[in-house]
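Notebook entry, structure prediction.
Reason for the run: the old model in the group folder had no record of what sequence produced it. Starting over properly, with the input documented here first.
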Amino acid sequence: MDLVTAALLLPLDIQIDPNSNGLPGIGQLKKIVGASMTVGLVLAVLALIMSAIVWALGANSSNPHLAGRGKLGVLVALGAAIVCGASVTLVNFFWNVGQQV
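New structure, fully documented this time:
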């Protein structure tokens, strides 16, 4: 059997969609993921506050290393908040892109 014949034997129209009823515990898993997102957002806010304090202390004490670390911490905390907040939207976006391929 050559490669062309084998390719013609493969099914051409496969329709598989996510099944939220397929496994037991999916509802609890969704609750755990939602709680994890909440914890991540709260920790990002805490990191933002602490980094802003470090930045302020470094700027007021003329310590450029400390001020730089505080600035980096602010950026990382904001990035973490963006990823936590947009994670569902990002996954849905790339799911839809993958469905169009």
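Summary: The helical segments are 3-9, 26-60, 64-99.
The old model has been moved to the deprecated folder.
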